[in-house]
Amino acid sequence: MSTQNEIVIVGASFAGLGAAHYFLKHILPLLKSQGDGKYHVTLVDSSSHFYFRVGSPRSMVSKQMIPDSKLFLPIADGFKQYSTSDFTFIQATATDWDPNSRTITISLAHTGKSKTLNYHALILATGTRTATPLTSLHGDHTTSQQALDEMNSALLTAQSIIIGGGGPSGVETAGEIGHQLNGYAGWFRARPSNPKARITLYSGSDKMLPMLRPAASRQAETYLAKVGVDVVHGVKVVGSEARGDGQTVVRFANGEESAVDVYVPSVGVTPNTGFVPQGLKNERGYVKTNAKTLRVDEAGPRVYAIGDVGSYTRGGVMDIYDAVPVVMTNVKADLMAGSSVTDEKARAKVQDRLYEPNLKETQIVPVGRSKGVGAVFGWKLPSFMVWLIKGRDYMVAQAQVMVNGTKWEKESKWTPRDG
Questions:
Q1: Domain containing 120: what range?
Q2: Least buried of 90, 93, 284, 373, by fewest C-beta within 10 Å?
Q3: Taking the alpha carbons of 379, 359, 15, 6 in that order, is the dihedral positive or negative?
Q4: 3-class SS at 204?
Q5: Strand partners of residue 6
Q6: Is 233 within 8 Å of 92 (Cβ atoms)?
Q7: 210 and 312, same structural domain?
């Protein structure tokens, strides 16, 4: 009887879904054709549904524009196309990882019971979480759905709002809230004539959108003013506390405080690495990843990290799209070469595919429902193109593409370099 080799993927957001579909579509058929052992993929995630968080800024203000059905999609449904003998999805949270015994311990969502998974290969794709379930999963998807519901309700009567953070999420959120509550100023006005709410974004730096050129940041600030959003630079939000009267007290690094009806934190992220041994994490808590091969070299053979959880990346969905073919090419090479000592010579002949980060200016940021700033590969995009690409619906159709694996229908071709 042939041995079953378990491929465990922890995390089922953009990176984990990409890795799972890529393996099942392009690597598993090749391994089956070799006939030496069985392979099975187990995908683990704490949520039963994928959250297309890209669309959260608009859903935050109106679920009529982007309903739950477009943002939250059942993960299992996307894998019905594969045989159950090849794939299993488990809703669970990883609680422990022992690289020496090559096991992952998970806590099952519905029972709380622990289960230990042995792995032949392990792909870590647990990503990061934001400070609020509005913009990332905090356990099951229902937590984020409830947070969006509560924000929709709170904005109906809110008169004072603070957004903490001047990255793309903060700018997009401020723009959506401003447009929803204050409307958009006409051609000859810098600000709405009769704003409903006082909205302030604290960038915490000397400019917004640090990955874009200064001119884009200034333009975004102009667009925010058009929807009644004030921008304050040089003041950083350091904390908040809900009061009994429904308001939230926001604390700043300069010692000042402000009580507002609604506070949306968009400051920083935390890697989901609580289960990872301390020695395999860097000083910021990210998995120490080979920046070229995307292997976790210190964790033993056939262990990889992809997406925001890895130390190699600046983060973001576009970076994940670039990384999936790289890491999966190396997964395929490692599995094809074998794992025993006698296979070292065979492994040495296999050339690694190397990850090359795209460091060119690339970011697309809608500001309200009709404007935006951005650049792709260093080329500035006009506001209309930002709206066309992302601003009109926040690309929600891509959610189904990710869950179903259509994004990875074709294998990424790569030719090893000579020498």
A1: 4-132+270-357+395-408
A2: 284
A3: positive
A4: coil
A5: 40
A6: no
A7: no
